[in-house]
Amino acid sequence: MKILIVTQNVDRTDPVLGFFHQWLEEFSRRAEQVVVVAQSASDYHLPNNVIVESLGKEKGNALWQQVLRSYGLFWKYRKQYDVVFVHMTPIWILIGAPLWIIFRKPMYLWYEIKRGSWKLSAALLLVKKVFAATPHGLPSASKNLVVVGHGIDTNFFVEGAHEDKNLVVAIGRITHIKHYEVILRAFAQLPDTMRLCIAGGPITVADVQEEKRIHGLAQSLGIAQRIEMDWVVPTDVPALLQKATLFLHASQGGLDKALLQAMSTGCLSISTSSAAQSILPDACQATENTMAEKANAMLQLSASKKTALSTELHSIVVEHHSLSDCIEKMVCKMQ
To answer: Which domains can be identified in the chain, with CATH numbers?
Structure first.
């Protein structure tokens, strides 16, 4: 099979989208040819059967310039792909569909977020299948939905010793949907020897305002001196999780890959996410009001119970959300 993949960014150092580099590596193992058209591309190293073309967003190209270039690339490589796979951006289904329909190239979409849009609704009318990590991946039901797991590289996010008993970690962009205020209020009720590392930062202007609000809350709670907040490059995230004793999570979007990455390393995790409740053991499920109570209870578990829970969390990811199984399921549906 030959596949065209349209994505936002190919950059293994990108703290948000760096994981997609591993997806491309996995696709390359299962496809004869992979052509990647990315809005921006910079740091990557991929097998010889992968061609990467950038639309120039990293150079400041406007969307209309990217669209014009994309048509040229979709035409140029038309004999080097059989199917089209668009990652997370339904607008590119709408942009490319006029050509792909003429070329008779089946279109597929990956989408995993509760928030919908007219672009998603329109794209769902054009794609053959839409892939998602969970049934929560789409804002509404679709007969074309195929649930394939989240695609976590369990050979990258391997189990760790979690030797730093005072380190608590949260991961993700500083934005309102992540509900960091829930995490801070819970952390404030943990022993004062604990430290919180938030591996994330702002992207938009609204995120910057959210970051200021979070800093203000930390000051008012008296925990600012025990919190470190900054982006962590993707290659350093596994080591951070392998060292931590606890991972706190309060995002209310779809099933968050950051939670699954923590689970894959065996890091004891607590989440208030409604999308995560069905996959988590009881000890890891919390509400905004019970996160602190659950966290303190988890910290007081015996060593043997912590080990058993850590192993269970890792096994959940291996069995239901591994990268190899996720890509294999998608490729099988596209063939």
So the answer is: 2-147 (3.40.50.2000), 167-320 (3.40.50.2000)
